[in-house]
Amino acid sequence: MSNIVIDAIDKAIIDHLQADGRMSNQSLSQLVGLSPSPCLRRVRQLEEAGVINGYVALVSPEAVGLAVTAFVRVRLNAQGDRQLKEFEEVVATFPEVLECYLMTGDSDYQLRVMVGSLSEFEDFLRQKLTRIATVSQVTSSFALRPIVYRTALPISR
Description:
Layout: H1 8-19, H2 25-32, H3 36-48, E1 68-76, H4 81-91, E2 97-102, E3 109-115, H5 118-127, E4 135-142
Antiparallel strand pairs: 1-3, 1-4, 2-3
């Protein structure tokens, strides 16, 4: 990612695109107070600089049968570069894992996992996660319901 100075107009562009990534350049330019050409040029610069990484559709988990969200803390049997790399490469292949963070504290990693049912979670745990050779301990917590769920970063905080 190249160094880019993000000014107030760039922040406004980012905020609006985070709210509606399918917004037309014409609408976006009106909202941020630019004519269409300079607005599009700024969007392209933000994309080229890696500030905007892509555009996605946000899908309702319930609508596609993903009723269970689990937060899984994983401890490895050792924390050497080889063990960390092995775990990270394998866990990145699991579609159930939506997020994985290297952590400080009692666990080495924290994962956010989504599956359709508790039995699917058990299968994920038994057939995938605990079969990674470097995993020594797994602790899971289940979300009862989301209270705050945002995908937009607080750019204009």
